[in-house]
Amino acid sequence: MGDLWTETYKLKTWLQVEIAVCEAQAELGYIPAEAVETIKAKASFDPKRVLEIEAEVRHDMIAFLTNVNEYVGDAGRYIHLGMTSSDVLDTALALQLVASLDVIQSHVDKLIQAIRFQAQQHRDTVMIGRSHGIHAEPITFGFKLAGWLAEVLRHRDRLCQLHREIAVGKISGAVGTYANVDPRIEAITCQNLGLEPDAASTQVISRDRHAQFFNTLALLAASIERFAVEIRNLQRTDVLEVEEFFSKGQKGSSAMPHKRNPIRSERLTGLARLIRGYAMTGLENVALWHERDISHSAVERVALPDACILTHFMLVEITDLIKNLLVYPENMRRNMNVYGGVVFSQRVMLALVEKGMQREDAYAIVQSCAHQAWNTPDGDFHALIASNPTVGTHLSPEDVAACFDPRYQLRHLDVIYQRLNI
Questions:
Q1: Whose C-alpha in 95, 165, 239, 248 is 20 to 30 A from the C-alpha of 141?
Q2: What does DSSP assign to residue 252?
Q3: How far apart are alpha carbons 369 and 373 in whole angstroms?
């Protein structure tokens, strides 16, 4: 990804656009075909020389064109005819963004594979579901991962849509009116570059497209952060249901030799904040003065490379983290059954209602037993329910035992697994 955002690669895309325009000009008879062949054969650039010229002329596109003409010679007079700088800048930027999206999409596919594999491995690995950070009802780790998978699949769809929105070029001249360039040149150039002509550009391509780019990456980063925060919570010492892979020779703390910290998940959580910030920057870049200003330009030179490189890095990190995640089913069972299975309280309450008890009365009995178990060392909700005389008049010992079987809560999960091909 970093290679796509070097100065050399940027200038390479500029030259690619300029040559594509020259080819379109020749196809329509505006410039000699021989000149285009000369341009294609000789055109080149030296990034250091471009910077040297720019230091004098204080204009990056003029510096670039001056350097290219040093290689091309007389045929260089046909380069950039009727064009404005943003014709090249924005069309070339679209090529960079498309190339970056291709890298991101390929790594999203790898993340999908990693999540799907772990979800398949843990379809039936029972654990406790939590709401507000408090034990709720049984789920499986595969079910948790199914939610992650569905989310990343949505991101893949968003990236495909974004690809269409951002793969747009413009060769329409100053303020976008085609005053000095035939609109057919734009159509031919964009087609040859794999882009679509912007429907109605000003002197620049409107920045709502680029804002969408930033925001799509921010959404993806937010999901990665969600997965990372979940891993961090499940790795806490008093939970320890999953854990980041800890390699041989790795150290967790300079002071405490016992530490095994979720450093990659924490890193991902932090990086998501940066990309969210760039999303706001992208939104602020939409409002330019009239047909064009350059208030967006300096911002994008920092924000776009950073956002793409960071997103790529986050995808590589989270994919490797999930592929090598350590999962502890024994700890999951232990945590689910603390306080004698209080997490089966709803099932007990509903069983009592099914046997004729009023819901409010059933709720009160079950809540009393649950809170007694919760607030007592070695509390045993199952035992309290089984020994409650009111419960005994409605539920047999077999009925009570059935309420504490997690398979009841999990019996419909195959519907979700089938939707996601898990």
A1: 248
A2: S
A3: 6
Q: What is the CATH number of domain 86-178+199-329?
A: 1.20.200.10
- DSSP label at 417? H
Q: What is the pLDDT of residue 61?
A: 95
Please indicate, yes or no, whether the overall pTM of this predicted structure exceeds 0.90.
yes
Residue 101 sits at φ, ψ, to 5 deg, of -60, -40
Strands 326-327 and 242-243 turn out to be: antiparallel
Domain ranges of the chain: 2-81, 86-178+199-329, 342-403
What residues of the chain score a pLDDT lower than 70?
Answer: 247, 252-254
Q: List Cα–Cα distances, 332 to 140, 235, 259, in angstroms.
A: 9, 11, 21
Known catalytic residues? Answer: 132, 253
Fold match between domain 2-81 and domain 342-403: no
Chain length of the chain? 422
List alpha helices for 60-182, DSSP H. 60-72, 85-121, 141-166
2-81 domain in CATH 1.10.275.10?
yes
- Cβ(322)–Cβ(300) below 8 Å: no
Q: What is the pLDDT of residues 63-75, one digit of tens each?
A: 999 999 999 999 9
Sign of CA dihedral 321, 324, 329, 334: negative
Inter-residue contact 101 to 311 (CB < 8 Å): no
First to last CA, the chain: 31
Is residue 97 within 8 Å of residue 166, measured between CB atoms? yes
Tokens coding 321? 């983290």
Torsion of CA 216, 15, 204, 278, to 10 degrees: 30
Which pLDDT tens digit goes with each residue over 152-192?
999 999 999 999 999 999 999 999 999 999 999 999 999 99
- Listing DSSP states for 7-60 in one string gives HHHHHHHHHHHHHHHHHHHHHTTSS-HHHHHHHHHH----HHHHHHHHHHH--H
Contact 418, 379 (CB under 8 A): no
Architecture of domain 342-403: Orthogonal Bundle (1.10)
How far from chain centre, in Å, is Cα 67?
39
- CA angle 233/236/240 to nearest 5° reads 100
CB 121 within 8 A of CB 59: no
Q: What is the 3-state secondary structure (H, E, C) of 179-222?
A: CCCCHHHHHHHHHHHCCEECCCCCCCCCCHHHHHHHHHHHHHHH
Torsion of the alpha carbons at 151, 152, 154 and 159, rounded to the nearest 10: 150
